[in-house]
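1st attempt posting a full record on here, be nice pls
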Amino acid sequence: MLAQRTMQQALRRSAFQQPSLLTRSAMSKFAPPAQRRHAATTKVSQDEGYDLLVKQRLQRPVAPHLQIYSWQVQMVTSSLNRITGCLLSGGFYVFGFSYLVAPLFGWHLESATMAAAFGSLPLAAKLLIKFPIAWSFTFHSWNGLRHLVWDTARGLGHKQFVGSSTFVLGLSTITAALLAYL
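the predicted structure (as tokens):
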């Protein structure tokens, strides 16, 4: 412990000391010459500077990762997991808030009223309403289970990753269709 503290103090002292003439001449033999870039600057007004900045931004490439990488199923499932999570939680909060303020505005969001209104819709309309909600729920659920498996350090290889992504997409579609048909 004492040796470590002594070494730390010696390093700190040497870091703040000016190099001696001997070490400066030795370092100059091996060190490359310092580079200096002289940039020409001109005074511009704030509006001209802003216009110049806008022109420079137009010449920049737009998200080069979109141009370099090809779309893969893993990219899609990763994005969809976040999107479905946001949609489900956002929908839950919107419906919960509207259920709480419904008596203030005279809305009828009771279970019996909503069941009667939904029951009066044609079968195709019911399926079109239920399938996206069911698919979001089942996809997010199955993908969550897949992430729990990953937490055990299983299925992290590239082939297993692609296979599990495809499997989750297919299983979500099948289970969502079954739930929408109920």
